[in-house]
């Protein structure tokens, strides 16, 4: 068979990676991963339960938090089958169609989470900078529209990913550096021209996630400007305290995401670093967001305590 034909031979599967160099202790490593998944699912489910059952939490801030919890649940469920499959059963193979489906859900959910975090920043901006119009601006129908736009934007922007990837031939090394499929990792395995994928991926990342981050920064600049103009130091600290949980969620989401994107773009790091940042990017926000909001948000903390005490 000629070399040309060999180069176009498409593998039936991709190979997923657990933690490079630690394959012999994957079963032990699965224990903290299981705890992370269980805590993430339980924590976000509790957030959803208390915001639904407590009428006092039917406010814009907590509705957005519920949207964030649903997105985090989706991210955990999307990565859990392949991640635990590797650690428990050493099941590293995933078919092309299953891989494309997984990367669609993971990438669309990350775009949706970015949009929700931006909406939450807008919520804090209105609450602090224009409190008298808070209820009239963030009405339930408007919040529902914001959530629907976030969902549609994530789905529409990511839908071309699997379509474009299906046009490529995959050959030679077909091992991914993660325990799940991401667009950046899969397209690097193609043995055909991926310039369209690179350009489109860069464009939608900058125009959506980059724009979300910019609007979040602008919101907090305006918030800080308003807070510093307050005469009372107590009022200043009280206003800033309402933003702490959201700021933590923003940092937990964007810092690993930007670091992982930079690593894929410049390709100067080891597979272990890519693997570590990939797990950090998709496992830590769903784990930490409900914990941070439960600790730092008094109404949620009080409601959780009442649930467990009763």
TrEMBL record:
It comes from the Eukaryota. Pfam families: 7tm_4. The chain crosses the membrane at residues 25-50, 62-88, 100-122, 143-165, 198-223, 244-264, 276-295. PROSITE patterns: G_PROTEIN_RECEP_F1_1, G_PROTEIN_RECEP_F1_2. Its main location: membrane. Keywords: Cell membrane, G-protein coupled receptor, Membrane, Olfaction, Receptor, Sensory transduction, Transducer, Transmembrane, Transmembrane helix. GO terms for biological process: cellular response to lipid. GO terms for cellular component: plasma membrane. Coiled coil: none annotated. It is found in: Cell membrane; Membrane. Residues 43-293 form the G-protein coupled receptors family 1 profile domain. It is a multi-pass membrane protein. GO terms for molecular function: G protein-coupled receptor activity; olfactory receptor activity. InterPro entries: GPCR_Rhodpsn, GPCR_Rhodpsn_7TM, Olfact_rcpt, OR51/52/56-like. The keyword Transmembrane helix applies. Belongs to the G-protein coupled receptor 1 family. This is Olfactory receptor.
